[in-house]
Write a structure and sequence with these properties.
mainly alpha, 56 residues, flat
Length: 56
Amino acid sequence: MSKPGKLTLEQEFKLQMLEGQVKSLDLDQAQGYILELLRQMMVKDNIMKGLLRAEL
């Protein structure tokens, strides 16, 4: 299993593929993409907090 702060080889590959797509976005698309990413990260944080509370 990989370290929590590191990406797996599969994740590194996916990141490289997404890099090309992101570079082709215009400003409005990029801002929308970032906002959606931040929203999803907040949802993930809420799920993780809920799971941790359930285990306590």
